[in-house]
Amino acid sequence: MRIDHMALYTNNLERMKEFYVKYFDAKVNKLYHNKSTGLKTYFLSFDDDTRLEIMTRPGINDEKIETIQLGYVHLAFSVGCRDGVNRFTDILRREGFIVINNPRITGDGYYESVVLDPDGNQIEIVE
């Protein structure tokens, strides 16, 4: 068994699509638009066939959520090595994205950083 995809809502579908395309090399399918509900979605595919569905619809609440909460917390992308974590974190920082944890070895032995995507979702960059 494998996870087919995960999904997240956004108020700015195009901005989120461009973020994952530009920085994570996502491949994008054709926009789906359900005219009766207003739902619009893209499926973003990554090199290992993992997919992320990004969605929007009228009435989405954009209230900020605490960074420690119940439910899904982050997406993690592997860049293959510690130097890659350092370089990629620096690129995202220079591009204006918030780095909430600089590259480091975590208590469970991962080398990672944590960056926020345009909507404030946590993205772990791991070796």
Secondary structure layout plus pairing:
Layout: E1 5-9, H1 13-24, E2 27-28, E3 32-33, E4 40-45, E5 51-56, E6 74-78, H2 82-94, E7 99-105, E8 111-116, E9 122-126
Parallel strand pairs: 1-5, 6-9
Antiparallel strand pairs: 2-4, 3-4, 4-5, 7-8, 8-9
The total count of strands amounts to: 9
Low-confidence region ranges: none
CATH superfamily of the largest domain: 2,3-Dihydroxybiphenyl 1,2-Dioxygenase, domain 1
Query: Based on the structure given, which CATH architecture of the largest domain is correct?
Result: Roll
User: Total domains, how many?
Assistant: 2
| CATH fold-level topology of the largest domain | 2,3-Dihydroxybiphenyl 1,2-Dioxygenase, domain 1
Q: Largest sheet, described in full? A: 5 strands, mixed
Strand proportion: 25-35%
State the separation between the terminal residues, measured CA to CA.
25 Å
What is the top-level CATH class of the largest domain? Alpha Beta
Quickly describe the structure:
The chain has 127 residues and is an alpha+beta fold. It has helices at 13-24, 82-94, and strands at 5-9, 27-28, 32-33, 40-45, 51-56, 74-78, 99-105, 111-116, 122-126. The strands form 2 sheets. Strands 1, 2, 3, 4 and 5 form a 5-stranded mixed β-sheet that branches. A 4-stranded mixed β-sheet has the order 6-9-8-7.
